[in-house]
Design a protein that fits this description.
Layout (H helix, E strand, L loop, with lengths): L7 E3 L5 E2 L15 E3 L38 H7 L8 E6 L5 H14 L4 E5 L4 H11 L6 E4 L4 H11 L3 E5 L16 H18 L3 E5 L12 H5 L2 E6 L6 E9 L7 E7 L2 E4 L18 E8 L2 E13 L7 E4 L3 H14 L7 E7 L11 H13 L7 E3 L2 E2 L5 E2 L4 H10 L4 E3 L6 H11 L13
Parallel strand pairs: 4-8, 4-9, 5-6, 5-7, 7-8, 15-16, 17-20
Antiparallel strand pairs: 1-2, 1-3, 9-10, 10-11, 11-12, 13-14, 14-16, 18-19
Amino acid sequence: MARTASNYRCSDCGWTTLKWVGRCGDCQAWGTVGEAAAPPAVRVAPLQLAAGSAARPITDVNTQPSPRWPSGIKEFDRVLGGGIVPGAAILLSGEPGVGKSTLLLEVASRAAAAGAKVLYVSAEESVSQVRLRAERTGALHPSLYLASETDLATILGQIDEVGPSLVIVDSVQTVSSGLTEGLAGGPAQVREVAATLIRVAKDKALPVLLVGHVTKDGNIAGPRLLEHLVDVVCQFEGDRATALRFVRALKNRFGPTDEVGCFEMTGDGIAEVPDPSGLFMSRGDTPVSGTCVTIAMEGRRALPVEVQALIVSSGAPQPRRVVNGVDSSRVAMLLAVLEKRARVKFSDCDVYVSTVGGIRVTEPGADLAIALALMSASRDIAFPGTLAAVGEISLAGEIRPATSGKQRAAEAGRLGFTTLVDSGSKLLGHAVSRAFAEAGKGTHDASIPDF
């Protein structure tokens, strides 16, 4: 059982301490400190419920779906589950410079063009700086109101003055409240600012979009409570070396969390990519050895991704293993499986594996395409452009089926791939022999065992 802490009090001056002492630390009197009685337990009295606020059976609750209004960007609406719900608090996080402010400024412009009054509060830039960016991206509209404020009370006053239908705050870590101690961005300040804005959103049925900073580890800065308070958490991903950007939902109370929106950063702002099938494949007419196409799943979307491999002889005691866009540990595992099961030696060669377009593929369904690309590079045999591979490779050399197999096969057929090497080959040796047969090198490669 927990030990009850007792206090000791001076009978002359009322000074208290957690342990008994012979002399009062305040009035310096001797023998006046004694054990004080424990304070009485405070009980919360039940509150009289207002009329109509009593709990109801779940079968009597209204099941009408929440109304949504489109943001004007279909890829963003896809991630949100069909549009923005009134009163929803949406948090968009991402690395610096990835395009969070540009995307939300475009959302504000589209909403203003649709007839809504939008308030864009920038706590990081001045109004003139936001205006210059809006001119560059073509986001100027008279129904879009700008404010540069870092004080929470002033932002609430701006909301009451403008009466907007949508509020965007960029960013929540740079706004502070005078009712809470600490600097802006601290856990207490972020908690108070987010809770207040969410309360205003719920009371006025006013959707609020918040921009969140991330730490060097990629996590959202501030307390974890911030992600629990908001309704939707979206992550904006992308390599600044490429123009491709992805928006994926990590939490969504109004829709699925496996949708992904594709965007492309251009000189005029950000543009949505409704069909990104051709972004991750090379456009050469002549097949090249060391390449193989896989159908990867990004959320619910099937995307063709070309995997490229290069094998170079090396005299170094430790050959290089360089990967880009794929998991290095899975490539190392596939090299070991190919060397053990297919009897292809890679230990004296430098191995380079990369994807086209800067996309990152980490799912096991790309194992077979990586293995076929490595085999193609080692034999210098090019696969035809109509061949794709999907499957997970085990340590025993077996090919396991990947998730969403029907959707992958349908997407491969839509894009013109006539041959899909998948788990139907059962073993890796059969799959490699089938791929080489499609390349016109016979029906079977005798140097590869049928393990």
